[in-house]
Write a structure and sequence with these properties.
Elements lengths: L4 H11 L12 H28 L5 H19 L3 H20 L1 E3 L25 E3 L4 H9 L4
């Protein structure tokens, strides 16, 4: 089935999980073009998370895993963008990922198990962020990681 014109626009609106009936004052154009704004907000949250790691992450393992999920959301949202927009956001995300990797150490077992983080002998490329912990551990996260047997 080929998706064209209005159907393609409606499909994009469905993908970003906004029901048009819930927002009668918004046009389809407004809703679809609101997506980059949400991405900017997520990129800012990811950058703030990286800054917290740089300063010494002072929250629990549950907070850390929750903050890592921002990276999942970024991956998911960027995947649905048009190529030219996608490349712009992938570049920004790549720069943040480099900073994140510099501030973290790789661990053998992921902090959470998903269908993508199952331990295997293959090089981990999907959801790699769940295999990383801060170099500069705050006391609470350090205690949690020790109790979990991660470090």
């Amino acid at each position: 089935q080929v998706t064209t014109g209005k159907n393609k626009i409606l499909e994009k609106a469905r993908i970003i999980k906004i029901g048009l009936w819930q927002f009668p004052h918004l046009t389809i154009y407004t809703i679809i073009n609101h997506m980059p704004y949400k991405l900017k907000k997520l990129l800012n949250k990811y950058q703030k998370f990286i800054e917290e790691i740089r300063a010494g992450y002072n929250f629990s393992i549950y907070d850390y895993i929750n903050d890592l999920s921002i990276r999942d959301l970024l991956e998911e949202k960027i995947e649905h963008l048009a190529e030219e927009t996608k490349n712009k956001y992938l570049y920004k995300l790549h720069k943040l990922d480099i900073a994140f990797k510099r501030l973290t150490n790789e661990i053998k077992t992921p902090l959470i198990l998903t269908e993508f983080t199952q331990t295997s002998s293959k090089k981990r490329t999907t959801q790699w962020w769940y295999y990383r912990i801060p170099k500069n551990l705050g006391s609470e996260l350090k205690k949690d990681l020790e109790e979990a047997g991660v470090i």
